[in-house]
Amino acid sequence: MPGAGKTAIGRRLAARLGLPFRDADAEIEQAAGMPITEIFARYGEPHFRDGERRVITRLLAGPPLVLATGGGAFADPLTRSAIQASGAATVWLKCDLPILLRRVAGREHRPMFLNADPVQVLQRLMTARHPFYAEAEVTVTCTDESPETTTRRVQDALDASVPPRRLPVGLGDRGYEVLVGPGLLARAGGLIGPVLPARRVVIVTDESVGPIHLPTLRAGLAAADIAILAEIAVPPGEASKDFSRLHGLLEAMLGAGVDRRTAVVALGGGVVGDLAGFAAAVAMRGLPFVQVPTTLLAQVDSSVGGKTGVNLKAGKNLAGAFHQPRIVLADTDTLATLPARELRAGYAEVAKHGLLQGPLWEWCEAHGARAVAGEADALTHAVLESCRLKAAVVAADEREESAEGGRALLNLGHTFGHAIEAEAGFDGSVLHGEAVGVGLGLAAALSARLGHCSQEWPSRVIAHLAACGLPARMADLPRGFSVDALLGRMAKDKKNRDGRMRFVLMRAPGDCFTSSEVPAEEVARLLRDEGAT
């Protein structure tokens, strides 16, 4: 904003970094051969903004520098896009109105202050510009401290800043990005604002996640002037994924006054993402949707790909829709708040992705224990590589229509896992990731029995999952299961074709395939050998 000190701070920062300093306004005046006031008076603001954009683009295409832009530059969508595309680190010097008023005193020569009340001018500019300034990577709140102190804080903030990794999900005009990194909740408004049709949302979370992460998300949205029409919390756990809870959620959303430009933000784990995404898919025949996953399971799997749904008595996710999000914010800081059991359960999906990809499985065997121990670098790598794999698979086969392989491969271990989870009644005694972990071992064992892989692979998969603290065999689960009940669940699996059970099998890590040529008696024999009655 005018008076924030961007030129004074910029010069000092450039000196600290040993870089040249440029002021965009001074460069424009030099290029035009006239002051900015005259450019505005002669040609109008659109002409000025076009020239400003060309000057800034030219400067950012050259050697490294510190650039102070005019206050309106970053509020211009084309200039903002050019700055962001250049890869420049962007800093918002944020000042309160009283500080700005003191600093702009005597600046009546500036075009915006000519014959105008500076209070009204600044308030109008703050309302118009702050939502776009929030897209800057770094925000530093400025006070009446010395310029040297502010400059030091700007440099410290830049040094500490970790830009999110951006992974594209290539689905044409429905494509979106998965952002992975720390501190994304606090920047949520600036990150999701550009992809929203309107700056208003409803937030769906659960009663465990909300008290921990909702205040940070709320503040992040407020910084970009994104209005929250309602905050709706559901009970945690898989039992919330049913039609009665979906009905209540829809009524609450519509009662809050949503329209077709209101986005639904899912803050939580896979249950919240599936439920909120399904509500977004069917409310008014489709509302924009944002995934903000807070569990490892959701960050590495369910938040990416657009599968939404609820459970039926017959099985898991049997009612749902494909509804792609506008963006996914995987804030890795949220993983530090997870209970150890939830973290381990989420890791099962990482191991699944490793078995599908190959090199990631080698990483899992070497570093998986660090991930389940909560080490930040290992968790970040697990999320990034899992999302990279899933984004590629989803882009190639969004609706799981490939005759062989394709997106169905992501169900490795899930035919067994979903049956176990459904038979346990979704009561929390067996978490989704725990059921998938057991399912991975069973899928490897079935592959070996059918002669598709060596006999060492089942024991190797099971040993790794057990070393990471997961239940790796049916005997590790807190309850027993019957062969007939599990086979009955598998017979209703949504992946089945022409009435035949369909399994994902493996030859080796990185070499998996789908098959409907699996004798039911072989599956039954395996389940009995693993302890099912």
DSSP strand content:
15-25%
| Unreliable spans | none
Shape: elongated
The helical percent reads 40-55%
The number of distinct helices, counting runs of at least 4 residues, comes to 21
The class by helix and strand makeup works out as: alpha/beta
For the largest beta sheet, what order do the strands appear in spatially?
5-6-13-10-9-7-8
Largest sheet report: 7 strands, mixed
How large is the radius of gyration? 27 Å
Count the E strands.
15
| N-C termini distance | 71 Å
Average pLDDT value?
A: 94
Textual characterization of the structure:
Keywords: Amino-acid biosynthesis, Aromatic amino acid biosynthesis, ATP-binding, Cobalt, Cytoplasm, Kinase, Lyase, Magnesium, Metal-binding, Multifunctional enzyme, NAD, Nucleotide-binding, Transferase, Zinc. Zn(2+) binds at residues 349, 414, 432. Catalyzes the conversion of 3-deoxy-D-arabino-heptulosonate 7-phosphate (DAHP) to dehydroquinate (DHQ). Catalyzes the specific phosphorylation of the 3-hydroxyl group of shikimic acid using ATP as a cosubstrate. This protein is of the alpha/beta class and 533 residues long. Helix content is 48%, strand content 15%. α2 (24-32) crosses α4 (45-60), α3 packs across α4 (45-60) and α14 (340-357) packs across α16. The mean pLDDT is 94. The N and C termini lie far apart (71 Å). The chain has helices spanning 6-17, 24-32, 36-43, 45-60, 77-86, 97-104, 118-133, 147-160, 188-192, 210-223, 243-255, 270-282, 296-302, 340-357, 359-372, 376-396, 414-423, 432-449, 456-467, 483-491, 520-529; strands spanning 21-23, 66-68, 91-94, 138-141, 165-169, 176-181, 200-206, 227-234, 263-268, 289-293, 307-312, 315-322, 327-331, 503-508, 511-515. A hairpin with a 2-residue loop joins β11 and β12 (315-322). The strands form five sheets. It has a seven-stranded mixed β-sheet, sandwiched between helices. Strands 1-2 form a two-stranded parallel sheet. The protein contains 21 helices and 15 strands.
